[in-house]
UniProtKB/TrEMBL annotation:
<feature type="compositionally biased region" description="Basic and acidic residues">
    <location>
        <begin position="53"/>
        <end position="64"/>
    </location>
</feature>
<dbReference type="InterPro" id="IPR036629">
    <property type="entry name" value="YjbJ_sf"/>
</dbReference>
<dbReference type="Pfam" id="PF05532">
    <property type="entry name" value="CsbD"/>
</dbReference>
<comment type="similarity">
    <text>Belongs to the UPF0337 (CsbD) family.</text>
</comment>
<feature type="compositionally biased region" description="Basic and acidic residues">
    <location>
        <begin position="18"/>
        <end position="33"/>
    </location>
</feature>
<dbReference type="InterPro" id="IPR008462">
    <property type="entry name" value="CsbD"/>
</dbReference>
<protein>
    <submittedName>
        <fullName>CsbD family protein</fullName>
    </submittedName>
</protein>
<feature type="compositionally biased region" description="Basic and acidic residues">
    <location>
        <begin position="1"/>
        <end position="11"/>
    </location>
</feature>
<feature type="domain" description="CsbD-like">
    <location>
        <begin position="5"/>
        <end position="55"/>
    </location>
</feature>
<feature type="region of interest" description="Disordered">
    <location>
        <begin position="1"/>
        <end position="64"/>
    </location>
</feature>
Amino acid sequence: MSFTEKAKNKVEQMAGAARERVGDMTDNERMRGEGASQQSDARAKQAGQNVKDAGRNVKDSFTK
């Protein structure tokens, strides 16, 4: 996984955390939910990239 993809996922995760905190402070349930959802999406993207990298590593180990 490239550095830029990792950075984008981390930024999205942090934005979701910020949105969730603002929702907590303002007692806005919708914003809180959107923030949690955004964090989950970023984590899922990160996990998908990790699986993709692991598959690539396995493939490379068999071709060497």
